[in-house]
Amino acid sequence: MKFDPNSLNIVPFVSVDHMMKIVLQIGVEKMLKGIAEYVEDDFKRWELFDKTPRVPSHSEKGVIELMPTSDGEVYGFKYVNGHPANTKEGLQTVTAFGMLADVETGYPVLLSEMTILTALRTAATSAVAAKHLAAKNAKVMAMIGNGAQSEFQALAFKTILGIEEVRLYDIDPAATEKCARNLAGRGLNVVSCTSSQEALEGAQIVTTCTADKQYATILTDNMVGSGLHINAIGGDCPGKTELHKDILLRSGIFVEYTPQTRIEGEIQQLDDDYPVTELWEVITGQKEGRTSDGQITLFDGVGFAVEDFSALRYLRDHYKETGFYEDLDMIADPDDPRDLFGMVQRAKTPEQAAS
């Protein structure tokens, strides 16, 4: 990545307002498809990336995390929190921002909001996993948990897998009403349900995406029939799961980065040596995904830094054409790199210089 050294102090910034306008100009479904392509491309070169479980700081109220990675040429990180009680105060459960930087110089090249972008990349990654794991020609998806992620998930599965019907359930009927309203007119048959069991009727795929920071049983073993693909994306920290352990024991389990998922995902319920397959191995053809029509497949998705890197790469390659960004003067740029003090002195006002 090469840049004009005379402009390295200027960093493009995509604000929340910019991101909303970018999504609307590109189109949410087109953007989901594009990010999915970048995610899949990066999973194909998985072995190039620095990989580490996210760095968390836990509290009674939630968690704050850093998610870094690099492919050797570009470095990226995301700051993200998870505070389930925030919605009671009118706040987001998850907020985030991220950055890309040039490895050669260490200079940042893009700063962006990532609350919206994370929702897009999570949905895109879910659809990429289902593309390789779900039964072919799946047309019906149950969506259990109808919060901030739900519409993005539904539209990603429609765009990338051809899902035609989404069956919604949330313990809060207002969340289901919100999701159904937002999905109206978007080419999906939307069915609002009054229980998880009803939502699963006729579904070949189920996405679980709830926010409570606790061990929970959103799906029980008797609810899961043969051939189902489970997209479990709500469990994303120690002590938080959504599936009964018996479901895991019946499923082929696929994860992003095993060391992180054993800490945060559904598989924290299992022994540390319980066999799982990393999704990149399936995408590159090194290991099998679904092995039979009747197999239950489980994508234990907790979110990994490479996916954020992919989403930021997509944004880097497309934000300029939309015009929705601003330049920030973020990096000190003295005439002499050794004279940072002198640069500060040159900022004196006439009054300060005269004193």
Describe the protein in words.
The protein is α/β, with parallel strands linked by helices and 355 residues long. It has 2 domains: 11-116 and 307-332, ornithine cyclodeaminase, domain 1, CATH 3.30.1780.10; 129-303, 3-Layer(aba) Sandwich (Rossmann fold). It has helices spanning 16-26, 28-44, 115-133, 150-161, 173-183, 196-200, 245-250, 258-264, 279-283, 305-322, 340-345, 350-354, and strands at 10-14, 55-58, 63-70, 74-82, 96-102, 108-113, 140-144, 165-169, 189-192, 205-208, 215-219, 229-232, 241-243, 251-255, 277-278, 296-300, 326-329. Helix 1 (16-26) packs across helix 2, helix 2 (28-44) crosses helix 10 (305-322) and helix 3 (115-133) packs across helix 10 (305-322). The mean pLDDT is 93. Belongs to the ornithine cyclodeaminase/mu-crystallin family.
Round the mean pLDDT to the nearest integer and report it.
Answer: 93
Mind telling me which CATH architecture of the largest domain this is?
Answer: 3-Layer(aba) Sandwich
Q: Would you state the CATH class of the largest domain?
A: Alpha Beta
- According to CATH, the homologous superfamily of the largest domain is NAD(P)-binding Rossmann-like Domain
Rg, please? 22 Å
Order of helices and strands: EHHEEEEEHEHEHEHEEEEHEHEHEHEHH
Structural class: alpha/beta
Task: Work out the helix count.
Answer: 12
Low-confidence stretches: none
Q: What's the helical proportion of residues?
A: 25-40%
Pfam family, one: OCD_Mu_crystall
Organism: Maritalea porphyrae
Family: Belongs to the ornithine cyclodeaminase/mu-crystallin family.
Protein name: Ornithine cyclodeaminase
